[in-house]
Amino acid sequence: MSADFEFLPHDLVSDDTREAITDGVLYEKRPAKNPDGSVAEGLYNVWITLNNPSQFNSYTTDMVKSVILAFRAASNSRDVNAVVFTAAGDKAFCTGGNTKEYAEYYAGRPHEYRQYMRLFNDMVSAILGCDKPVICRVNGMRIGGGQEIGMACDFSIAQDMARFGQAGPKHGSAAIGGSTDFLPVMIGCEQAMNSGVLCESFTAQKALRLGILTDIVPGLKIDGEYVANPMVETEMKTDMMGRLLHGELKTGDALAAGKALMKTGEMDLSALDAKVEELCAKLLLTFPDCTTKSVEELRKPKLNAWNANKENSRAWLSLNMMTEAKTGFRAFNEGNREDGREIDFVALRRELAEGQKWNDDYIDSLMPGARK
Question: For the whole model, what pTM was predicted?
Answer without folding.
Answer: 0.91
